[in-house]
């Protein structure tokens, strides 16, 4: 076989191999490229993710995830976005407080001592 034949066969064979996606970064990562200006009702928001322009994507954004797993891009500069984030953070804080209360509450077999002295 000639060198040209071997080269052509090698090129065809290598082009049939699947390319490694790790070499190109996370291909399934979708970046926000524009914002919605329409406020979302708070009841449809299930959570959020922060997108930073310092990472893979070009703009800073808040990505709201709806209860139907739809992703909505919004700007942190919008008042409705800041209000929604504040509401979500307060819900998280309440859940964390409830969880810590459950951890510190005495169980059914615990003895709770109280001060029963009467003050004049």
UniProtKB/TrEMBL annotation:
<dbReference type="InterPro" id="IPR039809">
    <property type="entry name" value="Chemokine_b/g/d"/>
</dbReference>
<dbReference type="InterPro" id="IPR036048">
    <property type="entry name" value="Interleukin_8-like_sf"/>
</dbReference>
<keyword id="KW-0202">Cytokine</keyword>
<dbReference type="GO" id="GO:0008009">
    <property type="term" value="F:chemokine activity"/>
</dbReference>
<feature type="domain" description="Chemokine interleukin-8-like">
    <location>
        <begin position="28"/>
        <end position="88"/>
    </location>
</feature>
<dbReference type="InterPro" id="IPR001811">
    <property type="entry name" value="Chemokine_IL8-like_dom"/>
</dbReference>
<dbReference type="GO" id="GO:0006955">
    <property type="term" value="P:immune response"/>
</dbReference>
<protein>
    <submittedName>
        <fullName>C-C motif chemokine 20</fullName>
    </submittedName>
</protein>
<keyword id="KW-0732">Signal</keyword>
<dbReference type="Pfam" id="PF00048">
    <property type="entry name" value="IL8"/>
</dbReference>
<dbReference type="GO" id="GO:0005615">
    <property type="term" value="C:extracellular space"/>
</dbReference>
<feature type="signal peptide">
    <location>
        <begin position="1"/>
        <end position="23"/>
    </location>
</feature>
């Amino acid at each position: 076989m000639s060198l040209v034949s071997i080269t052509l066969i090698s090129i065809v064979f290598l082009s049939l191999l699947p390319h490694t996606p790790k070499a190109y970064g996370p291909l399934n990562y979708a970046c926000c490229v524009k914002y919605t200006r329409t406020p979302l009702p708070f009841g449809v928001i299930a959570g959020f993710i922060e997108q930073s322009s310092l990472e893979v994507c070009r703009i800073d954004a808040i990505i709201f995830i709806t209860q139907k797993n739809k992703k909505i891009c919004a700007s942190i500069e919008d008042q409705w976005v800041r209000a929604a984030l504040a509401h979500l953070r307060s819900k998280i804080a309440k859940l964390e407080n409830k969880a810590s209360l459950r951890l510190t509450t005495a169980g059914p077999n615990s003895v709770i001592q109280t001060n029963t002295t009467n003050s004049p």
